[in-house]
Amino acid sequence: MSDKHDAGGVTTTGHVWDDDLADFANQPPKWWMLGLTTSAIWCVIYFAYYPAVPVSNLQSFFKGLGGWTAIGEMEADQNIVDEVRGKYENKLKDMTPAAILADSDLTEYVTRSGKVLFGDNCAACHGTNGVGAADKQGFIAPILRDDDWLYGGKIDDIYASITGGRQGVMVAHKDVLSAAEIDTLANAVAAGKPTSTPLFAEKGCTACHGPDGKGMAVMGSANLTDSVWRFDGSLEGIKFTIANGVNAGPGSRDAVMPNFTEAGKLSDSEMKKLAVYVYKFGGGQ
Q1: DSSP of 144-209
Q2: Could you identify which of 132, 142, 213, 220 might form a hypothetical disulfide with 194, taking C-beta atoms 3.0 to 4.6 angstroms apart as the criterion?
Q3: 222: which DSSP letter?
C-alpha cells in the first residue's frame, strides 16, 4: 500500500493497485440490494411451486406445491381449443362435403384445419399444396391444383377418391403390339391426336379412353388430347406406358391411391375436410 494514495476521505478496504487504484468499502445501492433480495425470494417461491429438485437418489423429484405438470397444461390448452372447434366439428359431422362448401363459415374453418391433415397424409405423394411430386417415371401423384381430373373434380368425386382410394389399370401391350405399332400409337398420342391413327380404335384403346381419346372419369382413364400427363409425357415415356401398362405387374407404372376408410387412419369428418381443402385449391370442377 502506498502512502501517496488519497482516497478523498472515503473508507477503503486497504487494497491499492499501481498507487492509484483503491478498493473502496462503499455498500451497494439500496435498489440493487432490493433487487437481489426480491430475486432470491422469487427463486424460493418458484422452486416451491413448480417441480424442481430431484430427490430419493435421483429416482424421483419434488412435485411442487402447485401440482403443475406440462401434460396438465397441454390438456388444459387442448380443452380450450376443442371448445372453440366444437361448434364447427359437431355441425360438419352430419353434413356432406357439398353442404360444407355451401356454408362460408364452415368452409373457412375446414380450409384452415385441412392444411395440417393434408400435410400429414397427402403431401408426401401430392407435394406441398398439391403441386404434385415427380420421380423417374413422371409424377408419383397427380397435381391437384389444375382442372385435369382422372376421376372427376367435383367435390363428391374428390371425396370418393379419398374415402375409397383409386387404382388405375392399363394393360401392358408389349406382347400384343409390335414395336412399330407402339411407335405409331405413341407418336399420335404425343401429338395430342390419338384418333389420327386407325390403330387407336383397332387395338381397343377407345374402350377405356373413349372414341375421342378424351378419357372417361368413370374408369379413371386419361385424356390423351390435352398434353397433361400422369406420367412421363415424352415420346419414350409414352412408349413405355403403352408397352408396360399401369398396375399391370412387375415393370409397369404404379398408380395407386390408398383407401383411407379401410386404413382407419382418418375419420369421416377428417376426410370431408380434406375433400373441401383439395377442392379449394382452385382446380375443383
Answers
A1: SSSS--SS--SHHHHHHHHHH-EE--B---TTTS-HHHHHHHHHHHHTT-GGGSTHHHHTTTHHHH
A2: 213
A3: P
pTM (predicted TM-score): 0.73
- Calculate the average pLDDT of the chain: 88
Backbone φ and ψ for 60, nearest 5 degrees, come out as -145, -170
Q: What is the pLDDT of residues 103-162, one digit of tens each?
A: 999 999 998 889 999 999 999 888 888 888 766 555 668 889 888 899 999 999 999 999
Q: Which residues are within 8 A (CB) of 178 and not within 5 positions of it... i.e. 6 or more apart? A: none
Only one residue has cell 415415356, namely 237
Closest CA to 237 of 173, 200, 186, 177: 186
Q: What residue segments make up the domains of the chain, in order of their start?
A: 12-61, 82-167+256-279, 179-244
CB count within 10 Å of CB 62 equals 14
Please, what is the end-to-end C-alpha distance for the chain in angstroms? 94
**Is domain 82-167+256-279 given the CATH code 1.10.760.10 in the classification?**
yes
Q: Each residue of 18-45: pLDDT tens digit? A: 767 778 878 888 999 999 999 999 999 9
* Euclidean distance between CA atoms 106 and 124, whole angstroms: 26
Cα-based angle 178, 246, 251 (whole degrees, multiple of 5): 75
Is residue 285 within 8 Å of residue 149, measured between CB atoms? yes
Cα gap 5→19, rounded to integer Å: 6
Q: In the CATH scheme, what is the code of domain 179-244?
A: 1.10.760.10
